[in-house]
Amino acid sequence: MDSIDTSSKPVEGPGFSILAIGALYRDVIVKVPQFPAEDAKQSATSEKVRVGGNISNTLSVLSQVVAPGTQLLYATAVGGPEAIWRITQLKTSEVKSLLFTHFFPKTTFMSHAYDDMLSRVYNAHSSFYPSWIHFEGRECFMVEGVIDHFISRREYKQNPCVISVEFEAYGRPGLDRLMGMCDVAFIAEGYMKAFLEEASKGSWDGNDKELMVRLFTNYLKRTAKRRATAFITVGSKGAYAVRFDAGTVEMRYIPAPEIASSEIVETTGAGDTFIAAAIYALGYRRLDAVKAAKIAVNVASKKCMLIGYDGLGNPGAGFGVLEGENPFATPAVGMSPVLPPARPTDGLL
Known about the structure:
alpha/beta; Ribokinase-like; Ketohexokinase-related; Carbohydrate kinase PfkB domain-containing protein; UDP-N-acetylmuramoyl-L-alanine:D-glutamate ligase; PfkB_dom; 9 helices
């Protein structure tokens, strides 16, 4: 394997910026003394309200490790009186470099507001061209329109932006079509499992992770974009870095570090944290996919030991020791040679 720079200093090159599109939520975290039995009632000991949503979680983590002033744009459509509360909290305490958020009066169909928001992305910010665009994987047919808009611009011909999509909930209309349009796919184990069950017309116990990934990627190589990269998370087992190249597939398994159950305090948002760390490594640091997966697994594991997302990193040191070979991490087990270097025309990969 070629040596990889594991220092925290970003490499020199075109500035990193990201446009992330997805839903915004109000998360309510309720604490109980113990996990309740089925149909049992149990009083909560505390309740905490915070900003939620996959994209806001991802940007909250990413904002900790990029240089001040880095453009992290969050485009979302929300409705109702609580939208203002959420946006204010997000601006002041979560995403420090948030530049804009669209919110609209509550409508009968959420897609109306979403469509309006996208039209503003097209027009009001026509001068802005990000180096990375990330989609949560909702309103997928509209996402196609956003992708078509950006790849048709002259900037894309000169310096292609990286397009990434999260594949979390299998069965969302149009989500499967996005696999052939993205440069980077973030695929949850649940999505992979549901895909295989539908393809095989049966249930899947999911115990053999490697077999699942091999079967799944065998399907995907028919539709994935040429030289696309995929990260497939498998919960506490870690993740797989996958590279598609003209019908061939190369994989590398990155095991998760062993953490005592007593140290796990919150797993909600671990997947969003993984995505943030991978985007940081690939897009901001310009590391390869294997190194990005190692960093992402470590950072997501660390997040499970924290309440919320604060304290994972800082602009000066990045994710710190989580970016290097340290006692917290486990060496990767290679199932194939190192992933091939990307061509310059492949943008930031």
